[in-house]
Specification:
The chain is an alpha/beta fold and 213 residues long. The chain has helices at 5-21, 28-34, 51-56, 70-83, 119-132, 180-189; strands spanning 39-45, 60-67, 88-91, 104-109, 133-144, 157-164, 170-177, 193-200, 203-209. The chain starts with a helix and ends with a strand.
Amino acid sequence: MEPTSHDVRATYDRIAAHFAKTREYAWPEVESFLDDRVGETALDLGCANGRHSELLADHAKRVVGADVSAGLLAEARERATEREFDLDLVQCDAARIPLAADAVDLAVYVATLHHLPTREARVGSLDELARVLSPDGTALVSAWSTAHDKFDREEGFDTTVDWTLPGGETVPRFYHIYSPDEFREDLENSALKPEDVAISSGNCYAVVRGRKQ
């Protein structure tokens, strides 16, 4: 049986506190992407504990952190309070973003796309990202890839990856592992305009702009 967005939410609510403790620092690829970019409104889609929201706060006047997990949003709120950066939080599925069209100038959508349970949902979420990006807006999208050392496959596939809690309990997490070609194909089939697609640290990355004309 295919997982649902409810299953993903329940999984991350269950592991939120421990997960947040292991996700302290921003990814170098996100730092590089944001290096020379600024905007009025930024979106951290799949914000988890807010580590990339904190980085976005230095590049935009307003940052919106969105995640399906209320537990992770609570962790992001705690981080924003402790580190004194402004962050608006919203609970939502990545395939249904409750923001107006053209509202976002800068977005980060990393390590989240691969948790959506169907290809329709994944492409739909890319369409949603395209919808909320402003005409000059830009975003960084990432997903786990078959290029990662831990996988010995060339075609994309669905799998589960266990999260181990401190007491030894394991919680399975759904992943769709993208092949690089499949990642490019889903981007091309979405409303986004890919500008640069690459592999880094076993992940597929794409710098994209909003809706195709």
